[in-house]
Amino acid sequence: MGCGSRGTVFAGAAALLAAMCLPALSHPHVFAEARLDVAVGKDRTVEVLRHVWRFDDLFSSTVLVEFDKNKDLKLDAGELKDVASVVHESLAEFNYFQIVTANGRDVAMEAPTELLADFTDNQLIILFESRPKEPLVLKGKVDFGVYDPTFYTAIDFTEDDYLQVENLPQSCKRTVVRPDPDEAIAQNQSTLTEAFFDDPAGNDLSKIFATKLELTCSANS
Fold first, then answer.
1. Which member of 33, 94, 130, 135 has the lowest number of beta carbons within 10 Å of its beta carbon?
2. How far apart are CA 175 and CA 214, in angstroms?
3. Count of CB atoms within 10 A of residue 110's CB?
4. Quick check: pTM over 0.85?
5. Each residue of 72-91: pLDDT tens digit?
């Protein structure tokens, strides 16, 4: 598949083009505003994560041009389905940009069965749900966030209220953590080498820069 094809164009903007068609880059070229809702069951188990990403005008315009098969300057249901399918496939190896940890350990997430795409006010919107592979009980410190390990796409929660919890137990405290980039680099200077920033495939350490929803919970209900 060449770099001019619509599949590669979108995959690149979602992180793959940096590896397939461009030299290594250490700053974002695609921007999206995000919302994350974490739904918790009565047994304090995390049931589902609901993601909404709204992409910037420039990238959205690129998607419109590449996927508008009938050239009517809009994306119909079939074209939006194609967009969602390409994004779904492209982000699989990046765990759909999700970061979930429980007491410092990564939590394995099931791949979403599908992604939905919409195009509203000239902006592409991606929606999907995901679930932990194993029961995730809120105990201790559990973090949720979204980040692109290649730094090609910046997904930002512009307001703390865009990180929410449904049915938050009374024994849990909700905090939005926004790392200071300079401080994060200083604290991890020994591991953040030039190779880290030049790796187009990304690095798990990039999660230190991610905005996170932090839930601190006692064992009591």
1. 135
2. 5
3. 11
4. no
5. 999 999 999 999 999 999 99
